[in-house]
């Protein structure tokens, strides 16, 4: 959570003249997203999110992200919708940064999601996968096998600082995944970061998905495995098979998984656990003490990785085979 | 700007059952205020501010602050209004902290205020002083003569790090102010921190005053001198007499200053410049590098202090005597 850039109100008013957004009533920097600066605007028409894209986001990726939200929204998914400027562009410039105005989605993320919520998330993920079909732009997943290797090369020599023996353990995971990563599964647009803070609920009803800034093209079932990791483990590290079952049933009620996707689930889940372990490990080793960012413990994902390593059948995730 | 405390959505919903605030639709931590955690809530009724009071605020002061906002609002001032709970209390508890629900004020603060805005601020300040009459609670100003001495005692030995000779210079200011501080001027409730970021405008119209967490009982004309310091100097350090004139005329259109208040203005302004110099100096010397808080340059207020020191007549502030 962070606001990196302050905006002067006269600059913002000038920026808004390019949009048909109503009269500006207020704007507040909000503590949301770690990559960008976000502001909640009240206008005479509707609340809006203003996002200023900071350095960590590749400017060349922005048409993909903004176009994707438009495409998914048009496909019936509830997600933030970029407002076009009067000239049709989705992107403007504010305080020297690329900036977009995006519809505000009411709802709250669940700090303690239950199995029934996992079912809704599974459904929404499948809806997103279906709605993503036909989207013209492509973006490769920078955090797949190759990206993991790059991250690991930067962290490997210090991995044993976190836990003795980790260097050998992770190296053998990487070797396994390089050798057995599935190739011919259905692919498409994946969210790639559908953690609880990116899913809004109103009561028990899912009101929408946010934060598509990791979205990319990859195996759809890999996205399912990310959600299993993000939603279906308890704080004590135990896998909650009821949550897993609900998540997978919810998903399959919209888009049934193929046999080969189901068969690949343990490998994919091992991969996605490794992916979050590696980014957290890297941040853990490189973020200075006292920095503004909360460091997430990499060991949480090490425990998940070990769980997936010992899975003998996809049924253990809660699938009725 | 900071959000110190995260709130779980189920805790917040539980907290809201004590209020008649409508259905919760969303809440966002906002980057506002450095002492407390603030959240902007959308409900089915109206937007609201939720404030969690962190350690730096004295819990025993909260009835003063919240009661004051209620009193000023009832007196016709546009300012945030605390919502009473169903049991009538203005204060509840959330995440282990005292917490209040307060009406949301639309408007934006001006990064580059003009003379016409200074006039509006002067008027609103006087309206606040008038509306403050009859408020039953008292709170002494902890940042007056005694408080300055305490701050100075902690910083004096290192003052020359900021600028050589500063130790003697500031010591003689303190001696002068201790000897000549006015005593028999009209007193009452003052805002004590009415900087541009605490005054909201919609277009050129002032929409309200916020942040009463420095409010206290003190000389009303001292509050005027704080506003002269906060609003009427340019970035290059020059006093803008047109802004000063507008500020003072605006103020006097609601509450005319007495002759003795006018005569005391140079001394009061010297005191308020010293007050902000001293807190900034202290923060400058004690805040660790890389902390989350932006350090404000104490030299800005040193320059203002030197300006007030050489004033020979209150007319130099833009008063027609």
Describe this structure in words.
Chain A contains ten helices and nine strands. With 321 residues, chain A is an alpha+beta fold. Chain A has two domains: 9-103, Phosphorylase Kinase, domain 1 (2-Layer Sandwich); 115-317, Alpha-Beta Complex (Aminoglycoside 3'-phosphotransferase, Chain: A, domain 2). Chain A has a five-stranded antiparallel beta sheet, with helices on one face. In chain A, helix 7 crosses helix 9. The longest helix of chain A is centred in the C-terminal third of the chain and has 28 residues, at 259-286. The model of chain A has no long low-confidence stretch (mean pLDDT 94). At the A-B interface, strand 1 of A face strand 1 of B.
Which ranges of chain A are low-confidence, i.e. pLDDT below 50, for 5 or more consecutive residues? none
Gap from first CA to last CA of chain A: 41 Å
Portion of residues within helices of chain A: 40-55%
Radius of gyration of chain A: 20 Å
Q: Based on DSSP secondary structure assignment, what is the total number of beta strands of chain A? A: 9
Largest sheet of chain A, in brief, is: 5 strands, antiparallel
Tally of helical runs of chain A: 10
């Amino acid at each position: 959570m962070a606001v990196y850039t302050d905006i002067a109100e006269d600059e913002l008013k000038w920026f808004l003249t390019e949009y048909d957004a109503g009269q500006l009533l207020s704007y507040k920097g909000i503590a949301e997203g770690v990559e960008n600066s976000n502001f909640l605007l009240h206008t005479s028409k509707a609340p809006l999110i203003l996002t200023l894209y900071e350095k960590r986001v590749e400017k060349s990726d922005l048409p993909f992200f903004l176009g994707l939200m438009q495409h998914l929204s048009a496909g019936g998914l509830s997600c933030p919708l970029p407002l076009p400027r009067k000239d049709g562009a989705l992107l403007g410039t504010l305080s020297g940064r690329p900036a977009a105005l995006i519809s505000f989605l009411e709802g709250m993320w669940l700090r303690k999601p239950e199995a029934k919520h996992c079912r809704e998330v599974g459904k929404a993920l499948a809806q997103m996968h279906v709605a993503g079909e036909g989207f013209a732009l492509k973006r490769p997943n920078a955090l797949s096998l190759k990206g993991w290797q790059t991250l690991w090369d930067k962290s490997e020599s210090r991995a044993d600082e976190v836990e003795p023996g980790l260097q050998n353990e992770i190296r053998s995971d990487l070797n396994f995944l390089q050798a057995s990563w599935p190739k011919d599964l259905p692919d498409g647009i994946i969210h790639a970061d559908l953690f609880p803070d990116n899913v809004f609920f109103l009561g028990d009803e899912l009101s929408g998905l946010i934060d598509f800034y990791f979205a990319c093209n990859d195996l759809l079932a890999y996205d399912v495995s990310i959600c299993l990791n993000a939603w279906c483990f308890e704080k004590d590290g135990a896998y909650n098979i009821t949550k897993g079952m609900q998540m997978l049933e919810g998903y399959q009620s919209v888009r049934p998984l193929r046999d080969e996707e189901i068969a690949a689930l343990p490998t994919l889940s091992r991969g996605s656990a490794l992916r979050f372990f590696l980014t957290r490990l890297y941040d853990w080793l490189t973020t200075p003490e006292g920095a503004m960012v909360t460091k997430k413990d990499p060991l949480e994902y090490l425990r998940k990785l070990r769980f997936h390593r010992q899975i003998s059948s996809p049924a253990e995730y809660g699938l009725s085979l």
